[in-house]
Amino acid sequence: MPPYDPSNFPPFAVTVDLVVLTVRRHALCALVVRRGETPFQGRWALPGGFVRADEDLGSAAARELVEETGLCAHDPARPAANGAHLEQLATYGDPARDPRMRVVSVAHLALAPDLPAPRAGGDANSARWAPVDDLLRPGTGREDEQATPLAFDHARILADGVERARSKIEYSSLATAFCPPEFTVGELRRVYEAVWGVVLDPRNFHRKVTGTPGFLVPSGGTTTRQGGRPAQLFRAGAATVLNPPMLRPEV
Amino acid sequence: MPPYDPSNFPPFAVTVDLVVLTVRRHALCALVVRRGETPFQGRWALPGGFVRADEDLGSAAARELVEETGLCAHDPARPAANGAHLEQLATYGDPARDPRMRVVSVAHLALAPDLPAPRAGGDANSARWAPVDDLLRPGTGREDEQATPLAFDHARILADGVERARSKIEYSSLATAFCPPEFTVGELRRVYEAVWGVVLDPRNFHRKVTGTPGFLVPSGGTTTRQGGRPAQLFRAGAATVLNPPMLRPEV
DNA sequence: ACAATAGTGTCTGTTAGACAATATACG
DNA sequence: CGTATATTGTCTAACAGACACTATTGT
Fold it and tell me: Which residue ranges does the record assign to the Nudix hydrolase domain (chains A, B) (predicted)?
């Protein structure tokens, strides 16, 4: 039995990495930044950074999110003006995951509505939204500079984050985190379609979401930004879990 | 922008804490150990310890599990002889969670079949299975020595682990991790009843679990250890997700 | 015989999924 | 008018939940 003396613990660095997801042009996209230093210099990576000495893990993630995107995390209630959903994802601590030293990374998952453009330190070329299908595709010959594998174990972290998002919109109202404050049923349906990579029946979807109490509340207005008949505008309701859940179609 | 120099990171200690759950006498129970040192000396706590310098997080959790219970973790396939399910739960890093120094704890969740008795360093009085309802009950006057609040933030960690187990047996075959290698439908039902704290209809439950392909495979034998008509024995099948899920009854 | 548990069958209400039909905008 | 999207309605198969009934052991 080793003594529980906190002074002879092995030295660790603790970081937070962010899987920031959004839906752009009908595709699920993740925020990636270009690394300026070794290791993996020039490769794309998930945004992240060291946890400060007196900072909680969630606070560190929220700070990084603001630094990278300007988004405010909005955990307890639902996204207000410029808020994004933020939750802890998982922790990655393989001794060899960073060649420099022992780094344990507490990954977080953030879901945001479509945003104008990423800004990382003001450098436009050093951050971008990339479709997750491109980032996670294993070497398929389409190995241009945009599709090189992510640094460190970030492909695994991203895959875990995507899977969390895909499963969580089934039984929670989290899909609304991808939408602006006011949105139509069709826009919400296109979120589900993009995240799951499927096509859903608009009529059954409409009946399902409007029939689930507390999921959507009408905000009064209508919009015609999608063309066709004007659609009713909704806000996210108070319900956080969906019962019964949205069913993801089989493969 | 702080420089990404891994040599000027704040000093962290990284530990793993274990939420080990089992079902004993029709109640969901967790393994707790008595602390021998300050802080929280004499209080009950979740088992855990420091992650070693060249050890993966999952390996550290598996090592602690063996040290505390003698159980072998058995992640990929299903519990064989003496295997338990082990998965990462969440990470807790409040700067004030340990008064001695900055400690980040990567909590893991383990599910085990009913075991003879815990052994922690051979000391029988320093470890026990306690009903989670007792451990999580806020001060209700029943504040005897057995029910004093857990050390550190372990009550929160335990609550998160219990909630994870409760929700995960809905849509996965994980409930079989609480059962011995061979079990009856009735025994499996009593697991669900203990974990959820509800009473289920034996007839509908039987129809549901035997009708879900891949959940249970008959092992040929029968048993009468519960009294009454002999029951068919089953093993856990290959299916890991249940579709459609088991439905947890409403409150 | 009685108690206890295992297992099968039957009925009913709800819901998912397929799809017809109507409504209201823009061009 | 044609096209596009929104919204309502209808039908059917599957399933959850309630519960009657039979089967097989021990006492």
Answer: 11-153
